[in-house]
Amino acid sequence: MSQLLRYLRLLASRPWRQRRDPLLVSEQHFRVMPWDCDFNFHLTNGRYPVWLDLARTRYLIEMGCTPLFVKHGWRSVLASQTLTFIREIPPLADVTLRSEVLHWDRKYLYMEHRFLVNGRLHATAIARIAMLKGGRVRSFSAMLDVIYANSRQFESPDLPAQVAAKMALLDAKKQASEG
To answer: According to the UniProt record, what class of enzyme is this (predicted)?
Structure first.
């Protein structure tokens, strides 16, 4: 129920009012409520992925994807996500979740999410996201072309070390599962 309320709050903030450049940082704010905590009296590890879904939804809405998703059958699918916990987040903390595109290739979009409390980093996540249309994976560039009607061209940022490491880890996991 709390997740539904957070989605309603997201929609009430009307993030589609002004289209945001896809390479700019997107921010989502949360308050850690008592029901978000575990027996250790800090934000439970199960809440992080839920908040990451909300942050990615905000990012996609701000970018102008809503018509593509609602009218034209596009979807975003989380292919992989790696979370790193640095320090616990206490109850009632005001959390800023910053989401930023790190890189994209012909198949996946890579985003970094940073959980900040009072400007201090508490956790990070790197997400690998596939864009689908008609059941087929489409490039993030193709989606940007549709959103901007080919009026703007975007270059993927250079491949950062953490994305290269994530790609290598996922390739190793795939090889291990096949062998």
So the answer is: hydrolase
Domains held by the chain: number = 1
Residue 11 CB partners (closer than 8 Å, separation 6+): none
Q: 162: helix, coil or strand?
A: helix
Q: Which domain holds residue 135?
A: 2-178
pLDDT of residue 6: 60
Cα distance between residue 42 and residue 92, in whole Å? 9
Query: CA–CA distance from 137 to each of 34, 83, 119 (Å)?
Result: 39, 24, 36
Closest CA to 107 of 148, 163, 52, 69: 163
C-alpha–C-alpha distance, residues 98 and 117, integer Å: 11
Give the residue ranges of DSSP H helices in the chain: 2-12, 47-63, 66-71, 140-147, 161-178
pLDDT tens-place string over residues 39-72: 999 999 999 999 999 999 889 988 887 888 888 8
In this predicted structure, what is the pLDDT of residue 10? 55
For residue 97, give the nearest of 50, 29, 31 by alpha carbon. 29
Count of CB atoms within 10 A of residue 122's CB?
20
* Length, in residues, of the chain: 179
CATH number at residue 22: 3.10.129.10
